[in-house]
């Protein structure tokens, strides 16, 4: 099964220009699956069996379905290239934005859609029916066409989900669904927790949809252990599912209900653990999962809105000189945790940080930071556990 | 040795971190003897503000525990790429953890990735790349400065990482990487990265890959983006990241009498916290007064799967 092909039951990311959406293909082979890309209906199942990549929205003449089907394509034509021979102006001195430049009405455009015009043809119509297009500057025309392509581009990318795309996607959809964990903050967590293959890591995910667990599983590719630490039965796992992990890639993932871990540790303490039934001794071999013990983890990540009591307890799972990262969307709880750790001499190199992040538009004669930026991406308390 | 594998106790030859406080940390290689400037071998004794440490006595000591100096103590820490970045000997300007972590994530690095890096510099980023791609990946790193290549090669060996990395002396812009259809990712930290784009394309896998360039100046970034567009790279994004650090301090506000005023006739004398010290105390999150404001612009792009590749 080649994972570079679009397969049933797998997740894919569908991207048109800057718009992205996450979809799961039907489990059952042969079932049609239609999705919405902007205002267009697209038959996603028409891409099954093809490699991920660029697809063109095509009308199937035989199939009178309203949905576009997807055809692999390498001939992406940018509208600014197609329409570059038109006139352009010097500046916006004569242009007045009264909302009346475009002579086509909403209904006219809908009719053109209904007639089966391609996206490029619709935009050409919009340009021809614009009173101001040919007096706009070249840069202004490019910007106008780019904006139209967001809605009308005939090409989409069908992408294999990876952590970089999913982190950006989930954060842009609804930041608080992942506790406002911005992608660059996620990148810092991966470094500060010293995530590496053949290590033992623990993640307490208090509402990040499994994003960090998925990122660790992706980084270690089957080498090592990732304990999913939970108090309640409900596991955060949406991102883990979206990654289409293979059984080998999922092998490191182990669930640990902290209440049960507490019980088994108590049993060991009371000497109950010594009485192992004969049948169980035979079963213990190298492949048997090692139970989670205090002082055993190389790295720990805690993600929650109220890290206070739980973070201090979970750090007991870390080995001495182990790295921990506590992430919280709010700074005040982390102040408490910072003070607590300081007073108890639990850790060294304690740092409370926030990541600052900005994108830049780099175009000839038009380079500047992007106009919008993220105001916050959560806070991190990181440190190294010590035995004082 | 201890970079490659997590250990609980120190063995001879390991590089360890001695931690005194956040501003005083030292990377030490545990050897019984050390060479003086003249080349004589003497007992390896490390001096700190709290006294001397006989380095050989670290053998067998446990990581994460205290270590004694003649007039005080510190902590013995397991090395990590982050601690190495803060304590390595600078031969060039280096990259720090915020940029490094963004690079590793945006290049989609994972165990098994093959990476090309130029220039190696002081090996700060190299250590983080190796951590991400081990045990099945490989880093090909290049620097045009012979001595820097020699120093970093020795460091990789000292740290037990030599199986994961090949360091070579090479002028990437002129001579390329001598690699074809090999790399999942290419990282360029050069004065003129646009001159190495064609070489990067040759080194990248025909099935696709990622590229990153790091440039302090916007002009370099502009030239690089133009070259990337012309060559056929997709999803070109330029970004920058910084880290803001906070102190947590208990603040006591001055006595309210200094600020006791009201436009109304009667002055409210019974306001909460009036004169009481407890009401004037709060825990503050204080950003540092000075912070790093710029390191460089990071440009990432995707080299798409070439049509010559059949799946």
UniProtKB/TrEMBL annotation, chain A:
InterPro entries from the UniProt entry: SAM-dependent_MTases_sf, TRM6
Keywords: Nucleus, tRNA processing
Chief location: nucleus
GO cellular component, one term: tRNA (m1A) methyltransferase complex
SUPFAM superfamilies in UniProt: S-adenosyl-L-methionine-dependent methyltransferases
Pfam families: Gcd10p (PF04189)
Cellular compartment(s): Nucleus
GO process annotations (BP): tRNA methylation
UniProt similarity note: Belongs to the TRM6/GCD10 family.
Protein name, UniProt field: tRNA (adenine(58)-N(1))-methyltransferase non-catalytic subunit TRM6
UniProtKB/TrEMBL annotation, chain B:
Main location: nucleus
GO cellular component, one term: nucleus
Enzyme Commission designation: 2.1.1.220
GO BP of this protein: tRNA methylation
Top-rank EC class of the record's enzyme: transferase
Cellular compartments annotated: Nucleus
Ranges of residues in domain tRNA (adenine(58)-N(1))-methyltransferase catalytic subunit TRM61 C-terminal: 72-302
Molecular function terms, GO-annotated: tRNA (adenine(58)-N1)-methyltransferase activity
Keywords, alphabetical: Methyltransferase, Nucleus, S-adenosyl-L-methionine, Transferase, tRNA processing
Gene3D superfamilies linked to this entry: 3.10.330.20, Vaccinia Virus protein VP39
Keyword tRNA processing: yes
Binding site for S-adenosyl-L-methionine: 122-125, 143, 189
Protein family: Belongs to the class I-like SAM-binding methyltransferase superfamily. TRM61 family.
Function: Catalytic subunit of tRNA (adenine-N(1)-)-methyltransferase, which catalyzes the formation of N(1)-methyladenine at position 58 (m1A58) in initiator methionyl-tRNA.
PANTHER family: TRNA (ADENINE(58)-N(1))-METHYLTRANSFERASE, TRNA (ADENINE(58)-N(1))-METHYLTRANSFERASE CATALYTIC SUBUNIT TRMT61A
The name this protein goes by in its record: tRNA (adenine(58)-N(1))-methyltransferase catalytic subunit TRMT61A
Biological source species: Daphnia sinensis
């Amino acid at each position: 099964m080649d994972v570079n092909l679009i397969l049933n039951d797998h997740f894919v990311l569908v991207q048109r220009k800057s718009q992205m959406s996450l979809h799961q293909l039907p489990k059952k082979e042969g079932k049609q699956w239609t999705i919405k890309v902007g205002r267009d209906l697209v038959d996603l199942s028409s891409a099954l069996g093809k490699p991920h990549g660029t697809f063109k929205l095509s009308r199937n003449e035989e199939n009178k379905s309203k949905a576009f089907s997807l055809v692999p394509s390498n001939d992406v034509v940018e509208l600014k290239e197609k329409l570059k021979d038109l006139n352009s102006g010097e500046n916006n001195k004569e242009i007045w934005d009264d909302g009346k430049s475009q002579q086509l009405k909403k209904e006219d455009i809908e009719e053109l859609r209904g007639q089966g015009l391609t996206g490029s043809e619709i935009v050409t119509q919009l340009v021809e029916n614009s009173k101001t297009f040919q007096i706009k500057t070249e840069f202004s025309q490019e910007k106008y066409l780019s904006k139209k392509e967001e809605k009308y581009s005939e090409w989409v990318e069908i992408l294999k989900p990876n952590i970089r795309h999913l982190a950006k996607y989930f954060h842009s959809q609804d930041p608080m669904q992942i506790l406002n964990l911005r992608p660059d903050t996620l990148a810092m967590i991966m470094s500060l927790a010293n995530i590496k293959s053949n290590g033992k890591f623990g993640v307490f995910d208090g509402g990040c949809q499994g994003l960090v667990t998925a990122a660790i599983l992706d980084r270690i590719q089957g080498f090592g252990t990732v304990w999913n630490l939970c108090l309640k039965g409900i596991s955060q796992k949406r991102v883990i599912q979206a990654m289409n992990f293979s059984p080998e890639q999922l092998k490191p993932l182990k669930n640990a209900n902290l209440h049960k871990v507490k019980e088994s540790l108590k049993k060991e303490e009371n000497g109950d653990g010594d009485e192992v039934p004969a049948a169980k001794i035979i079963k213990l071999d190298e492949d048997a999962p090692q139970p989670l013990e205090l002082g055993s983890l190389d790295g720990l990540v805690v993600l929650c809105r109220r890290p206070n009591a739980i973070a201090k307890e979970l750090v007991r799972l870390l080995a001495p000189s182990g790295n921990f990262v506590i992430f919280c969307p709010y700074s005040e709880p982390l102040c408490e945790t910072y003070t607590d750790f300081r007073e108890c001499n639990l850790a060294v190199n304690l740092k409370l940080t926030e990541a600052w992040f900005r994108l830049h538009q780099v175009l000839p004669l038009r380079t500047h930071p992007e106009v919008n930026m993220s105001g916050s991406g959560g806070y991190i308390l990181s440190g190294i556990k010590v035995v004082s | 040795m201890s970079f490659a594998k997590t250990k609980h106790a120190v063995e001879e030859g390991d590089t360890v971190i001695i931690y005194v406080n956040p501003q005083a940390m030292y990377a030490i290689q545990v050897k019984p003897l050390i060479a003086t400037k003249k080349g004589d071998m003497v007992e390896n004794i490390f001096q700190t503000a709290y006294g001397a440490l006989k380095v050989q006595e670290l053998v067998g000591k446990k990581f994460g525990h205290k270590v004694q100096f003649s007039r005080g103590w510190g902590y013995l820490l397991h090395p990590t790429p982050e601690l190495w970045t803060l304590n390595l000997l600078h031969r060039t300007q280096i990259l720090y953890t915020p940029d490094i972590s963004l690079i590793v994530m945006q290049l989609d690095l994972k165990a098994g990735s093959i990476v090309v890096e130029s220039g190696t510099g002081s090996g700060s980023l190299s250590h983080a790349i190796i951590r991400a791609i081990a045990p099945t990946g490989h880093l090909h790193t290049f620097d045009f400065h012979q001595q820097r290549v020699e120093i970093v090669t020795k460091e990789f060996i000292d740290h037990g990482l030599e199986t994961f990395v090949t360091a070579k002396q090479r002028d990437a812009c002129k001579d390329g990487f001598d690699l074809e259809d090999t790399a999942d990712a290419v990282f360029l930290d050069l004065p003129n990265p646009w001159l190495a784009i064609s070489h990067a394309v040759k080194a990248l896998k025909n099935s696709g890959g990622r590229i990153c360039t790091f440039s302090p100046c916007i002009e370099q970034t502009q030239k690089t983006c133009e070259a990337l567009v012309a060559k056929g790279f997709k999803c070109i994004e330029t970004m920058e990241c910084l880290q803001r650090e906070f102190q947590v301090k208990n603040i006591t506000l001055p006595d309210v009498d200094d600020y006791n005023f009201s436009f109304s006739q009667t002055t409210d004398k019974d306001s909460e916290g009036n004169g009481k010290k407890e009401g004037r105390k709060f825990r503050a999150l204080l950003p540092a007064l000075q912070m790093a404001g710029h390191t460089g612009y990071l440009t990432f792009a995707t080299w798409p799967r070439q049509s010559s590749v059949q799946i």
